[in-house]
Give the backbone structure.
Amino acid sequence: MENFPEFIKRITSGFTPVIGGELKQEDFAYIDLSESSPDLLKLEVASSAAFDIFIAEFLKNRQCKAAFGGYNELRTLYNRSELFNNSEANRNIHIGLDIWVPAYSEIISPLDGKIHSFKDNANFGDYGPTIILEHCFEGRSFYTLYGHLSRESLKNIKEGQTIKAGEKIAELGNFEENGDYAPHLHFQIILDLNGYTGDYPGVVKKEDLNEYLSNCPDPNLLLKI
């Protein structure tokens, strides 16, 4: 079978937006949020408000509209949440792509598909409201996950609902509803959901990393930011 990077390259071309508002490829700037980032040493990561200011200053200094990054990135940001930082889990490697834009920004589907499932993952430090889309091309199915949405985004939608590329599917939530993060989209490609509905791990531990990376390819293969 054709490998996924080749498959995605063949069925898509060029920059593929997932944020509405007619953002262009040049409107995005890469941000390093890994444990080795010098900028994070200046920041109290336990405060979502402080982090929001940090992101706003980053965008202003770079003269851009959106920040992105985080795939296969080791982070200390999750130490504040028992969901990740406990004796059993100890999860701190991020396997989705984060896109930092203001709360209530429109989220659009990058491809034709349908709503597979949705859920409010309401634990502190979790996704908050989450939608998973299923995409099928040439008989091959895969999934895209959208985390940290607004609760309003889960109203008036249903499983199996058809979605067109470029169609608005949600809005970003603020820190009060998105798991207590500065507003951003967690976007992830998943080849096999392994029975999950409305949820799938987006932060994993080192011991499981290779397994998850093989099942969750780099989202920028699709978005091409």
